[in-house]
Amino acid sequence: xxxxxxxxxxxxxxxxxxxxxxxxxxxxxxxxxxxxxxxxxxxxxxxxxxxxxxxxxxxxxxxxxxxxxxxxxxxxxxxxxxxxxxxxxxxxxxxxxxxxxxxxxxxxxxxxxxxxxxxxxxxxxxxxxxxxxxxxxxxxxxxxxxxxxxxxxxxxxxxxx
Length: 161
Description:
By secondary structure, the chain is α/β, with parallel strands linked by helices. The chain has 4 helices and 8 strands; from the N terminus they run ββαββαβαβαββ. Strand 3 and strand 4 form a beta hairpin.
């Protein structure tokens, strides 16, 4: 005859046979659930299993709701972006970083403008330097195909309320 340790709410826990534990759970109209098989004797709990599953789902949902979602905002430059456009995009990037979003800044090279990849790199490094107070460089400028990409993440994350 196999014995188990029975635990649960409003139950005098103790070691009893499996048949006794099943009878006790049936009398209470609840389920007998094996909690720890490796323990000596194995531990069973008398609970409403459907209610237990519901509470687990609820907890998982709450955890997901509280998890912080990372937003990535893109800012696109050309290799010959002029000063006014640069300042305009810099202000937008600053606002994005203050709001807690990451910024993906990239220089897009069209046609033969790929010859000016040094200009693109200088532009992105200047951009990173100008955003030094609100963000930190996560990935230095890297050429991927016709794009030179750089990621900047916020220094201080502000939670949305």
